[in-house]
Amino acid sequence: MNRNKGKFDGNIKDAIVPLKRVLVEALSKFKLLSLLVLVLIILSSVANVIGNTFLKSLVDDYITPMLSQPTPDYGPLALALIKLAAIYIAGILATWGYNRIMIEIALGTLNNMRKKLFDHMEGLAIRYFDTHAHGDIMSIYTNDTDTLRQLISQSIPQFISSCITIVSVLVSMIVMNPVLAAITVFFALIMLFVSKKVTGISGKYFRKQQMMLGRVNGYIEEMIEGAKVVKVFTHEKKTVDDFNGLNEELCDAVTNANTYANILMPIVGNIGYLSYVTTAAIGCLLAINGYAGVTIGTIVAFVQLNRSFNGPINQISQQLNSVIMAAAGSQRIFALLDEPKEVDDGLVTLVNVKEVNGILVETNEETSKWAWRHPRADGSVELVPLIGDVRFHDVTFGYNDEKVVLHDINLYAKPGQKIAFVGATGAGKTTITNLINRFYDIQKGSITYDGIDVKLIKKEDLRYSLGVVLQDVNLFTGTIMDNIRYGNLNATDEECIAAAKLANAHDFIKHLEHGYNTHIVAGQESLSQGQRQLLSIARAAVANPPVLILDEATSSIDTRTEKIVQDGMDKLMNGRTVFVIAHRLSTIQNSNAIMVLENGRIIERGDHDDLIAKKGTYYQLYTGAFELD
Fold first, then answer.
1. Are 266 and 317 in contact (CB under 8 A)?
2. Could you tell me the pTM of the whole model?
3. How many angstroms separate the CA atoms of 97 and 341, rounded?
4. Contact between 312 and 162 (Cβ < 8 Å)
5. CA distance 371 to 375
6. Residue 300: C-alpha distances to residues 8, 57, 391, 480 (Å)
7. CA distance 590 to 608
């Protein structure tokens, strides 16, 4: 796929591709409403043109003859005025109608677009979120989608209305007087030339504006999350200075974009006035000299048509800035939507099974037994019991081809074993666990789960069989019960409470004001770090996975709380295959095997007693001769 296709760099021509996709999104969901809008726009434009051309008849056929009548008859004039009023009222109602409908289409399109963005985002690999600022992603949902609202609700209907008006007015002017029509067209071409030049410059700044909005949002989110660190190290001034730098850059982009956008209207407007005056002056000369039957009514109608012709051009010029900004926003939106989803070629799925005469049989009932449903090449299906046997075979991995993180990793974890990883920061401990659940795919070697290559297992089923307790606990807005049930959405209240008891979380929960129905808000610290960690353990417990990953789950809590958390984890680990990453070596002494990593390689392996006896790196770490950084 050509990732540069449709990239918008501020030029109006480059806006066509992303804006075309926006229109397809809008029209595909609201075809009938869009057709109705088009009909109403045509009615509005035609009513305006008919009303303006009727002015000639009003002056020449009704008003002028009355000037020579001793006793004027106002009846025909009144009927003509009523007719003119009816035409304009019809145009006003049509204009109100299509603007009202376009608001509904715009908001409906944004609603669908955000749904599509979120649905697509949920299918992206972890790599995307590791390489993109979260605040910048949020800006796509807010600032960039809002540019589409302005485009759909305002710019598109005005553009269509203006085009229809321009064509119909031009035809009317040519029919009425070709000479005056030529003067109007001449000034219109000047207006279009100026508009193209100015919007070409402003477009570059509008694109930078959308980019800088994302960067500013990303920085604000980063500083909110790191507020404590900022204050601990008294970096408030530096943080403010850095923000001011980004904000100034954003301000410069917005200022430049809007400066060119704002000067366009008066320039084009004044050219329009010049066209209006010139047309009126030449029209008067033609009328005075009796040229081509030009009458006072002709002049009145023509100057009104002139304004009706230049007005839409002025409107198009104004809307070009919104179009350019929407193109910049839509380019960022579709960049996210075009991001390849996480590849999942797995055919092996996880199913409930039961024993019938000593043979595993797949069942739709919920049971306590699971198996891998493994289709074979000959068309047969094998049910492999889920027991939690995980093995690495000569695994080599790098986040990119230039930087290899793991080298020739070989290890096995038999069902029920506890495997611990020790090593300095960057040694590759967390990377190994990320490979088990296929957040990343390896370049060389293989990883098997119950004898099946993990690449053959559907990622959703693979991850369903794994429980993870991380150092940084993510709780979601909702009740305590909701957060525990997040591990298994089908769990009953009783199962969630049982999981909380297993994790040693029940005691503190029941002392909360509303117990399990206590409402918490994501990002707020109404619970201590230890309490949050206990909820994380309970969430993993209710999922009841055969394989558990503990990534430095006790490194950020105090010693007293650690004992409570550790006891909860010990209960959770019982009977499960467990991978543990820990800085505190006291928490892994009872591991079946301890892997010491250094620069992506396993340099020592064995249980605690074996490694102490070897007096190698682990011994140095345990006795304090070395320290983990």
1. no
2. 0.68
3. 41
4. yes
5. 12
6. 44, 10, 89, 75
7. 7
